[in-house]
Amino acid sequence: MNPDQIERDYQQALRRIGEAKDTLAASLDLSCLIWDRLPPELFELTWLEELALQQSVESWKGPKGTIPLLPQEFAQLPGLRHGILVR
After folding, report:
1. Among 33, 31, 30, 29, which residue's Cα sits nearest to residue 2?
2. Which of 17, 20, 63, 84 has a 20 to 30 Å separation from 42 between CA atoms?
3. What's the distance, CA 16 to chain centroid?
4. Which three-class secondary structure state does DSSP give residue 16?
5. Cβ atoms of residues 60 and 68 within 8 Å
6. pLDDT at position 9 over 80
7. pLDDT range class, residue 2, cuts 50, 70, 90
8. DSSP, residue by residue, 33-86
9. pLDDT tens digits for range 23-70
């Protein structure tokens, strides 16, 4: 896992989250970004209905074919109806 790439992608995620916040977007695509943590700002988007994430293979250490546990903060997104988690 390249730390520089992870940081660049984290900053890109923050930009996308900021745009979604400014426009009150109902969907947010954070796929194609390598992440080892989710920005806390994501959980301020309480109106969000759809979220796409792509878990990088490098950052998930669990057994093949399993899905990582999502943080409890997802409960702060009551409008979320569609979550797409691609590994």
Report:
1. 33
2. 63
3. 10
4. helix
5. yes
6. yes
7. confident
8. ---SS--GGGGG-TT--EEEEE--GGG--SPTT--PPPPGGGGG-TT--EEEEE
9. 999 999 998 887 778 899 999 999 999 999 876 555 555 565 555 667
> What are the residues facing 83 on neighbouring strands?
51
Q: Residue 53: beta bridge partners?
A: 30, 85
pTM of the entire predicted model: 0.80
- What 51-56 contacts at long range (C-beta under 8 Å, 24+ apart), as own/partner pairs, is 51/27, 51/77, 51/80, 51/82, 51/83, 51/84, 52/27, 52/28, 52/83, 52/84, 52/86, 53/83, 53/84, 53/85, 53/86, 54/30, 54/85, 54/86, 54/87, 55/85, 55/86, 55/87, 56/1
User: Are the CB atoms for 20 and 48 separated by under 8 Å?
Assistant: yes
Name the residue range of residue 71's domain: 3-86
What domain count does the chain have? 1
